[in-house]
């Protein structure tokens, strides 16, 4: 079952259960998928669907920060619940230990010696993450490993 059909099935189930929060989160993502397909003039690949959901999660996380800085805890809580719903459709994130080992292998493979080689390491590791690591988190761990 494709990610899109899974989203559609889950949205129907949420509608039957009158789970408005889940319904709204999924509806928003499905709308983004349809808009991306219109822009592309073709169906999205599974990787593109995952990237789109990851983008939606990132946008909501940015919104959470903005709402909190503006004193709108109610809206931040709503966005957090939507992030939780959407993360269920993404691959499980690497643990800190897995990530450190992954970065260590990338550094050994590229022969990176310091912070100036960060681009080399990120260049080979980013495509290999399989959506299991946020880019910001990956770059932070690579930077720390190369600096230390």
Task: Please provide a written account of the structure.
With 148 residues, the protein is mostly helical. It folds into two domains: 3-87, Orthogonal Bundle (Hypothetical Protein Yqey, Chain: A, domain1); 96-147, Orthogonal Bundle (Arc Repressor Mutant, subunit A), CATH 1.10.10.410. Helices cover 74% and strands 0% of the residues. The chain has seven helices and no strands. The protein has helices at 3-16, 20-40, 46-69, 73-87, 96-110, 118-125, 135-147. The longest helix is centred in the middle third of the chain and has 24 residues, at 46-69. The radius of gyration is 18 Å and the shape is globular.
Number of domains: 2
CATH T-level fold name of the largest domain: Hypothetical Protein Yqey, Chain: A, domain1
Average of per-residue pLDDT values: 89
Order of helices and strands: HHHHHHH
Straight-line distance between termini: 44 Å
Fraction in beta strands: under 5%
Largest β sheet strand count, sense and barrel closure:
none
How does CATH name the architecture of the largest domain? Answer: Orthogonal Bundle
Write the layout of secondary structure elements.
Blueprint: H1 3-16, H2 20-40, H3 46-69, H4 73-87, H5 96-110, H6 118-125, H7 135-147
């Amino acid at each position: 079952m494709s990610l899109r059909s899974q989203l559609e099935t889950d949205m129907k189930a949420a509608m039957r259960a009158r789970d408005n929060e889940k319904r709204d989160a999924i509806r928003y993502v499905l709308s983004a998928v349809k808009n991306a397909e219109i822009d592309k003039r073709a169906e999205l690949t599974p990787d593109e669907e995952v990237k789109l959901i990851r983008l939606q999660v990132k946008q909501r996380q940015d919104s959470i920060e903005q709402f909190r800085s503006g004193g709108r805890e109610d809206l931040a809580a709503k966005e957090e619940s939507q992030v939780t719903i959407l993360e269920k459709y993404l691959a499980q994130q690497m643990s800190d230990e897995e990530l450190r080992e992954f970065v260590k292998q990338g550094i050994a493979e590229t022969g990176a010696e310091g912070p100036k080689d960060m681009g080399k390491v990120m260049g080979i590791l980013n495509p290999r993450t399989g959506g299991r690591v946020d880019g910001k988190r990956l770059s932070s761990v690579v930077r720390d490993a190369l600096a230390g």
